[in-house]
Amino acid sequence: MDSVKDDAKGVGYRRVEVLTGPGRRRSWSDDEKARIVAETAEFGAKVTEVARRWQVSPQQVFDWRRQARRALAEATAPVTPSFVPVVSGPPAPTLEAGGCNGAPGALDRVAAGRRGAAHCA
User: Fold this and answer.
1) Burial 104-115 (b: 16+ CB within 10 A, else e)
2) In this predicted structure, what is the pLDDT of residue 9?
C-alpha cells in the first residue's frame, strides 16, 4: 500500500508540486482580448509582463495583436468595387470600305486643326 511518506528510496516525504493559475482552457471575450492588447500597446509595455499579469501565454497575446492589426487593416482599407462598370456611348463614326466616293483610297487629307475630321478629294 502506498503512503505519502513512501518514495523511491524509502526515505522521507514525496515532493508535492502545487500548480497555480488556470487549470483548464479558458475562453476570452473580445473585450478582454482588446484590453490585454491595448495594455501591450502602451509606451514601455512588454508583452511578456502583460501576459504574465493576465496569466496567459505570450504567444497567445502576440496572436491576438496580429489579429487586431489585420482587423484594423481590413476596417480602414478603401472600398474598391469588385467590377468595373461599363459605360457605353454613341458609336464612333467610321468611313465605309469604299471611302467617300466609293473608290478605295479616296480619303485624301485630314483638315488641319480639326482632329478626326476627314475630307474627301
Assistant:
1) eeeeeeeeeeee
2) 62
Cα 106 to Cα 93, 96, 116, distances in angstroms = 17, 11, 16
| 0.70 exceeded by pTM | no
At residue 16 the predicted structure's pLDDT band, cuts being 50, 70 and 90, is confident
33: which 3 cell numbers? 482580448
